[in-house]
Each structure stands twice: as structure tokens, then as C-alpha cells.
Predict the 3D structure of the following.
Amino acid sequence: MKLDVLDATVVGDSRTIAAIATPVGQGALAIVRVSGPQVQRLAGMLLDPVPTSARQAVHCIVRDASGDEIDDAVATLYIGPHSFTGEDLLEISTHGGLVVPTAVLAATIAAGARMAEPGEFTRRAVLNGKMDLLQAEAVGDLIDARSSAAHRLALRQLDGGLSRRLDALRERLLSLEALLAYDIDFPEEDDGPIPRDRIIQVAEELQHALRVLLATSEQGTLVHEGALVVLAGAPNVGKSSLFNALLGEARAIVTDVPGTTRDAIEAVLDLPGWPLRLVDTAGLRDTTDIVERMGVETSSRYLGRAAVVLACMDSLESAVALADLRDRTNAAIITVATKGELVSESVKTQADIVVSAHTGEGLSTLLEIVETRLASDRGMPTLDAPILTRARHQVAVATASDEVERFLKAWREDELPASVAATHIRSAADALTELIGGIYVDDVLDVVFRSFCVGK
């Protein structure tokens, strides 16, 4: 029996959307997700039998518009507002691979849905009040997490920890604004005007709280991306061998030919404290080879951003070659004598630690030293406390802090009328409101969801 196609009369964001919510490729299962006002009608057209009860998995056959069988699947219906998006939502669990989920998606599109944009399911969840913008970003961070620390931090933010902290600060700003409004509107009340020192005290407490939160942004970036640990040194001193040994797998090509590493190679090492973003760089030397020189320039750029540098050497000559390393970086430098089973005692005395990629000697100790240096310079990550993880967070909190600072200056010096000075407090509160998502600006939403995958 040929099925009718939905009348696609719904336009704009209210149209029913569909996408494959799992990565394309070989696998046992895939999920096609559909959300919007036409979900139940669409399910009736494509599924046999049709799910009628919410949150119950139903074994069914998926058919296309011609009635031909596409797959033997399992479908689950969620009735809005009790769904991820806040709308009616259907998840069809199909067999994996490329053809089957693509065919199911094509059938939903042919039936009247449209292809979802990247992050559109989560965007609808925000617009329908199922989560705020910070929690939506946490969804993206959870998907992109490359370490247990980043995973834990994303879960904390998804739970609303940062949102609650910012909302509390926003409420305190609004309370300060209310004090100022009272002083402006009711100056002749029996209690008299509110003492200026009380206003200053409240504003200073808010300023301190905002600065404390702003100070977490560096830590948030390090947890999210990993603390940058750069392996540097002359060519052929064992950097790539050490890189592979620390990761426990062959990620960099190891040869006896100087200049093999022509570009930086990155990998994340998940440690209990800081996640480490290890980078194996090109050997530092003067060269006439254009490609190798570009690799050396890349190495210099990484050194300029590093949190820790592992300065590798295997001879007195390579130790001397590290002398100009301090001019390339402000990071903590740990000198490492690689090839511990081969280097001389004189080389070992030049190093902070001796390691061997071949035998494993000193590798765990080296990682302990790196963590100790990071803890000394950056402190240990406080993953159970709210932390700013994105540039958008940092900009908004910095804006709020600057506005409170401007208010304090104007208030202390009595250089502006109270009604004008109070606008700084309102601007500070608005910055936090926009950050959480109380003010929806299309450009802000676009920034948040730009990096999301289709189907999420």
C-alpha cells in the first residue's frame, strides 16, 4: 500500500526535523531521531506497528512511502514536553552501517520532515526550556571530552552547577540594583537613605565573587583541552620514541634519520589529575630544507604556548643545543635524558630525570614530575566546583566584573547620579543573563551550536 506524504505546511523552526544521531560507519546499531509537531503522524506512516505509549520500546518494521520494507527496527516515542527537545520525539534504532540508517532517514524526509541542522535538537531543548545555554554547551563538551577530567567537568555543568552559581550572582546583582532603586525612589522614607558604605560593601563582595569565578577560566581551558606538554630538542634525540612510550602505542614514526618529524603530532594522555596534551615536535636546528624549517617554526609556536616542556637530550652536544630553549618558552622545563640504557653518566648528571622508551625506565616518574610542576604552577583542577570552560563564559563574566568596577568607581567618587551609576549594575546582570540563556540572541545561539554534530 502506498503511503501519503505529509503536508509540509509547517515552516521555520516549528517544522519536524530528522537526522541520524550516531556516527556514520560500520556498527551494530544506528539511531534516527525525529522531533516536532508531526512526529506521531509521521510514525503512523512509516512504522508497523505504531508506538502509542510514551517511553516504551516497540519492535516494528520501517517502510518507505511505497510501502516497501526498509528495516526491522525498534522505535521509542516520547511525548512533549517530556522529551529531550520538549517536543514530540521519535527515536528509531535501526541496524547499523551506511545504507539502512540513511534509507530510514530518507523515508522520514520524503514523508515531510526536514534535515536537522547541526545542534538543532539541543537548540530546541534550550528554546523549549528543557535546559539553559550552559547546559547545552555541556552536552557538546561531554561528546567532545577527551579525558576523564573533561568528562567529569562536563557532567557537573550539565547538572547545572555553573548555571546555579551564575544565577546566584545575577540575583545578588539584581538585589543591589533594588537597593539603588530604593535609594533613588524613596529617599525621604523613615529609615533615611541607604548608607553609601553599605552599597560599596555589597558591590565589592560581588566584584570579588566575579573575579574568583573569572580566575577559573584558565583551569577550565586546561581541563577541556589538556595541559600542553611539548617534547622538544635537537633532531634524533628520542623525542618520538618517548612520545610513543608515554602513550603506550606507536603514534609517531621513529627512525634514525634526523628531521623525520616534519610537523607536530598531538595526543591526549588521561591522567588522574591534569589531562596532558602531548605534542611531539620537529627537531630544533638550523636547516635549509624548506619543509623541515616549517616544522621547526611550528615547534617554536607550540613552545610559546606550552605549560611544560620536556627538553630531550641523548648526548652532551644535544644538551648544549637546549641552551636557547628558554628564549623560546616561558613554560616549566624538565630536562630528560632519553635512551637511558645508552647515555653516558655525564649526560645523566645534566638531566632532571633519566628515562628509557625501550625498557620503560623512569616513565612513570617523569609523569609524576610533570603533574607536580603543573600543580605547582596551576594548582590541581577542582572539578566539583563551577569552572568557566569557554571563551564565551570568560567574556561574559569579565564584562559583568568590569561593569561592577565602573559602578564602584562612580559611586565612590560620587561622579554620577545614582540612577546613572545603577545602569552599570543592570548591564552586569544582563551579561550573566545572556550567558545562562535568559536573553536569546540568534548570534549567541549560532555561536553555541556551530560546532555541534548533526543529530544532536
Remarks:
- The chain is about 45% helix and 15% strand.
- The longest strand covers residues 69-78.
- The radius of gyration is 29 Å.
